[in-house]
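Continuing from the previous page of notes. For each protein in this section, the sequence appears first, followed by its structure tokens. Read the first protein now.
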Amino acid sequence: MKRHMLLLTFLILCITLSKKGVLEEFIIVPNGQHGPITFNDDTYKKMIDFFKKQAGIK
């Protein structure tokens, strides 16, 4: 998939999730793709907090 189409897809996903009250923040890590570079302490904590909230875990 071309990069601009991928970004558009993520944008549509973000808008949809925001309207449903699921998404509070969307993080883009430049050149992060889907792997280890995205797992710095800050983004990892935000990801874990999001999943805990969705699971109803405090």
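Done with the first. The second protein uses the same format. Note its length before scrolling.
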Amino acid sequence: MPQLVEENIFQSVAEQLDENRRRNRQGRRGAKYLLQGLLACGCCGYAYYGKPVSSAGRKAEFEPRITTAKERLARLQIELKSQVDQEAQARDLRLVVDTLATFARQIAAGLDQADWNAKRDKNG
């Protein structure tokens, strides 16, 4: 019978089938995880596997991250409020200074037009 597959390809496939049997990638109930047993450790050759985590385990894993994120958010909100307050104070101060400058110009213009008695009262 003629050879259908080259010897080196046949040998490679046979080795892969042997490895698949050794790792028993799917177990009795089938693969529970998509890549179950397909990844192997480069040092020891042991196949990686999935492991279910309880809701308590997930909470323990993510709770510190959530707490840190909430604390950071609170600090940023305080900083934002402080910055908004400072900007409002600066805006109010500019308004007061502009109003006083306008008032001073009006007084100066009015004194130039005032009669001699009004000027005397101002100077004396």
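What the second structure shows: The mean pLDDT is 82. Residues 55-113 form the longest helix (59 residues). We return to this in next week's lecture.
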